[in-house]
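Worked example

This section walks through a single chain of length 435. The input is the sequence exactly as stored; nothing has been trimmed or padded.
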Amino acid sequence: MRTLIVGAGISGLACADALAGWGQDVEVYEASGRAGGRMETATVADCRVEVGANFLSSTYRVIPRMAERLGVALRPIRARAGIIVDSQAVTYVPNGFAMVRAGVMGWREAAQAGWQLARQFPRLAKANPADPAQWADIDVPADAWCSGRFGRAFTNAVIGSSFRGYYFQGLAQTSASAALAMVSYGSRPFTTLTANPGLEAIPRALAAGLSIHYEAPVVRVERDRTGGALVLANGTVVEGDRIVLAVPAPAAASLVADPSPLETQLLSTPYSSGLLVVLACRRRLTERELGGAYGLLASPSQAGPIAALCVASRAGHAAPGADAVTVMFDGEAAERLISQGEPDADVVTRAVAALCELAPTLQEAVDGEASRVVRIPAAMPTCRVGRVGRVRRYRVEHRGPVILAGDYLAFPWSDSAALTGLWAANCVRVSGGRD
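Given that input, the structure is written out below as tokens.
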């Protein structure tokens, strides 16, 4: 059986890697000139910075195992973290009641959250946080569900700030299934991880052993009862027994003709926008600046457009005598500024102002001309109420030669996207796509 995979992001690579490991005939077609998708490492001011996924968690279940098998060494990032509240950076080492000691929440609020987490622990320990189908029974609005159980302070400081900072989304339209799945990663001791020379080392290692056609954009996917074909931009037609669509939903939707009602719903998944500004610094940040933390998340109650910050030197990726601070705008601000076509210079000015509000001493250190603006119109799939149920239905009801994979069948974190690729590979291997 010949399988054609559209997209060399982490989902497509995971799928192709699994199939190749089982001895299957598999080829990948990638529109760009590189593998990894939004798992991308760039160089700014001689510092290596992540302009997609910013770290991995040691409690992830898919990608760290791949990295170990591929010989990509993962190492911890500085443990100190923080949250932006009232335009102040409050930092701490995550453990126990760290947020209480840092003044982010009170003892009573922390005790309530701890008690509820203890009640949820059997589920948190058992269910896979990368698999949306295992959390579909709590597919209700996250803000009310989390606040009613964990309290408003914990919901804002931990869950809300994470969704705002990591995924550029709010909890108002998010499903509680995604919120609790994310909490499960932190329900046991964990370490944030990176790789040298950056996280892109993982997809590069995956790609090295695969047959990948770069700069080969697909413009149409054709399917019949027993097989399918890819039509490339240059007019070439490539036939296969199975086709896996492992690209974001907007791209996949443009390729599929006559989708089923369920496919249409999945391919219509909304995305949050990403706007990142990597500010080049002429010196290393001192320990006092931004509280010595690698990353800062903005509380949902924090006024302003900034969702998160991270510091290259504190991930071990800065050049001697230099540094880089990545400023990430929240989803609403990113969408507005991208749609308005805000010039790079103006976006950099906004980012510098936001950074210097937290660390005024950096004003003279930032080199605006060497900085970089990254726009990602479809950055992260949203997980609105109803989607996890549709994902579970699709896995049960899927028939035919075209198999949907990619982040719109996942939670908005990289480990979950990789899992969709493994599911698609298993679908090819075990059932052959079941006509």
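What to look for: The chain is about 35% helix and 25% strand.
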